[in-house]
Amino acid sequence: MSSQYTFTGQYTFNIDSKNRINIPAALRKQFSSKDKKTFVITRGVDNCAWIYPITEWKKIQNELQQLSSLSKTNRIFLRNHLRHANILKFDKQGRFVLPQSLIDYASIKKDITIIGVLNKIEVWNSTLLQKIDKTEKVDDQSYDQLSERVNI
Amino acid sequence: MSSQYTFTGQYTFNIDSKNRINIPAALRKQFSSKDKKTFVITRGVDNCAWIYPITEWKKIQNELQQLSSLSKTNRIFLRNHLRHANILKFDKQGRFVLPQSLIDYASIKKDITIIGVLNKIEVWNSTLLQKIDKTEKVDDQSYDQLSERVNI
DNA sequence: ATTTTAACCCACTATTAACCACTTATCTTA
DNA sequence: TAAGATAAGTGGTTAATAGTGGGTTAAAAT
């Protein structure tokens, strides 16, 4: 699935006393005028929050609509991804309030790391991300498989 | 994957007090007008930084966009490669500021060596590169294997 | 009605990027 | 080969903006 969005980079911030998080200006500036500062934030597959610009989210919704609810896997998957989806806007300063349910899910304390992953933005507990960095590596075999698809 | 870019040569510089690095004029001049002084700098596979002109990087990005984030291997791979990718421009003087994360990764101190490697430019700690030069040689067997692919 | 919560607005600070000026090197031409 | 001219590389200052904190008002809930 191709997208107009190609978020990249890593940025570290603190969540403030009002549970506000700053979206890095570099990523914020990429938001199209069509998206009007509006985005969807939901549970990531890992223990982080995923942010999609609203137009991007609508594309995903279209794909999700193709999945039949007769399949149990589909039902669970759809439920988990849709029930935690919040439509938000960032304020004049480029911040938004992170919903409590996502603070819990992503174990957000104070130090957060925001990373761009093409069509989405991930919000992580900084120390959690560092841990995963060390433990979850791509093994050589998987790299070999990837090398057949991606020429980097 | 063939490219319009054929960077070659080796150049030595100092990184200045503001973490600025000069891109050698010889390489800089090759940047197409389409690239508008814009490039992506990211982690190399060795302990150096890789610079891709933005149009080159977009080719890579297109390939990355084909990978679904529902696969765990894909997620890890995408995260690790994209989070360290910074989109930058060089200034009027032909310099750019090297992000701290890459200074750390490539152990950049003061003396740096910039080398052209076809479609990308590598930024090295000079002494580190010299060390690797001595220790990491291509053995005869590997050369034989290469000879089947490259006619030099 | 009172308390709590969230949205909005304003202001300060720190960082970054743009700008300017100078030195050194290279190229050209007499 | 020398001298001028042009380009490359280096350093610092200024201006813009990104990030942060807090206060006020509006809304919601008890």
List the helices and strands and how they pair.
Two copies of one chain form a homodimer.
Chain A: E1 10-14, E2 20-22, H1 25-28, E3 38-43, E4 49-53, H2 54-64, H3 72-82, E5 86-89, E6 95-97, H4 100-105, E7 111-117, E8 120-125, H5 126-135, H6 140-147
Antiparallel strand pairs in A: 1-7, 2-6, 3-4, 3-5, 4-8, 7-8
The structure holds a DNA duplex (30 and 30 nucleotides).
What would your notes on this structure say?
The structure is a homodimer of 152-residue chains. Chain A is of the alpha+beta class and 152 residues long. Chain A has a single domain (10-125), classed as Transcriptional regulator MraZ domain (Chemotaxis protein chec, 3-Layer(aba) Sandwich), CATH 3.40.1550. In chain A, 33% of the residues lie in helices and 26% in strands. The first copy, chain A, contains six helices and eight strands; from the N terminus they run ββαββααββαββαα. The first copy, chain A, has a six-stranded antiparallel β-sheet. In chain A, β3 and β4 (49-53) form a beta hairpin. Chain A is globular. The two termini of chain A are 19 Å apart. The model of chain A has no long low-confidence stretch (mean pLDDT 88). The A-B interface holds A 1-3, 6-10, 26, 45-46, 115-120, 122, 133, 136-138, 142, 145-146, 149-152 and B 1, 40, 58, 60-67, 69-70, 73, 75-87, 101. The structure holds a DNA duplex (30 and 30 nucleotides).
